[in-house]
Amino acid sequence: MEPQPGHIRNFSIIAHIDHGKSTLADRLLQLTHTIDERKFRDQYLDAMDLERERGITIKAHMVRMGYTARDGRRYVFNLIDTPGHVDFSYEVSRSLSACEGALLVVDAAQGVEAQTVANCHLCAQNNLEIIPVINKIDLTNADVRETKRQIEDVLALPADDAVCVSAKTGTGVGELLEAIVARVPPPKPPPGRELKALIFDSIFDTFRGAIIHVRVVSGRVAPGMKIRLMNTGKDFEVQEVGCFIPGAVASGQLLPGEVGYVIANIKDSADVRVGDTLTDARRPAREPLPGFKRLRPMVFSGFYPVTTAEYGGLKAALNRLRLNDSSFTYEPENSAALGFGFRCGFLGLLHMEIIQERLEREYQVGIVATVPSVIYRIKKTDGKVVEIDNPVRMPPTGEIDEIAEPIIRAHIIVPNEMISAMMKLCHERRGECIGTESIDTHRVILTFELPFNEVVMDFYDRLKTVTSGYGSMDYEHVGFRASDIVRLDILLNREPVDAFSFLVHREKAEQRGRAIAERLKAVIPQQLFRIAIQAAIGGRIIASEVVRPLRKDVTAKCYGGDITRKRKLWEKQKEGKKKMKQIGKIDIPQKAFIEVLKMD
What is the pTM of this model? Predict the structure, then answer.
């Protein structure tokens, strides 16, 4: 029996990290009897080992649930569980585009956090009905009254509409299900008869190709139909449609308002673009659906295989990961030091770390990652403006008129007693405080404008350290600002090593150059000749270290005799070392790259 559009409810669960989204999804699955109790496990929708180990959601997960309301009517709930970390906000925006409502979960003990505010704004931009959910009311330090006040004052949502629950014990979740029925609007009537379905996610299956996740806006999609992806204009024949309950279950068709999957023998991942519109190839729609904002990667790093033989495997793995993650990009590049590899783009450091770990775990590909960098906008003396994400592509100094770096506006929530420590950290990172706002008697929102390249390295870890784990952060990009950026090169015996080059503010160049030179000195093995390690800006050396040569006692066999004999041997050794230095090649071990390219 197909669900009636008026009885469908499409909604997401959104919240700050660790406020209980996945646990609430578990309770909804149990109370709607979607999964058998014998098969149940905590974090049921988090399928990746990485998600379960870290206790975070990385990919948005979709599931259909059946629910009989107290009035006896049968409803279909399409739930999308979303990530909470700032790096994965693109997953949230993709999910919201397929929904009419959202459950905004707030921890009763922690209160409103930075990502809670950001997610609330995302919902408002998508015109979604927001149901505030106060979770963890079973905790001894839960403060429901204060949390309601924050929901009203900080989020500007009516606190009386909040539903108080404990996702862990199940208290109040029954009332939440009724609130979903009453307050989340059903899908709007279809604007026409032609097929229009929004692609909001996709995964790759080795045997079946791309599995597209769609929200049908109008028309119907069924097996045997010829469909067209409007972005590429390519046609495919539908093999299977269905929904996740929570495993993939085939159905006869998908109708307006429904959320499900489509398999159409799409073997090339480049054919599927998240945000594209799927339509009928025989009677195509005139205009595509308004796709949601396509986010550009902001952090870049070079990924190189540990061995040359793994290059093909790395390329295939990156191709499949890009299908599952539209914000991840890559293109081939070549390094004199590391060989052939790829320049990869990410939304943040956690995003990069997750991709790297997935490559090693799921595809068994060992990689070496270069220093993360951001996009710089360079105005040349001839008036042209170019954007670079790789120091190697930087134009000669004489051709550069101005370099602008990306700036972010960070909203940081910290306890009152840690404001000075946070101010000091942001000042060290060239940040400027542009606003403060009290949340309650204990916490404050600090708004800073910071250069993004100061944030990508280790800022989030430092924030957690100086606030003893109580601080939280959300950020948005606000544009570019002219700055004194220079290219720092690392030279080994006067030969530059491109993998170690990076762009840095002039004030911090000497400190960073000295740190890398010292670290290289510790990991490069001694040779039979002297190795000079230098950090340079243009032709000026700003830091230097030396790896002493291995010493061999060439006079060990000389027992007595004239001193000229020993001097002759020493001179011969000296000449040999000089010649070796001219023709000798410094072999930098893999360990050196891994150690030096690690973040400070």
Answer: 0.69
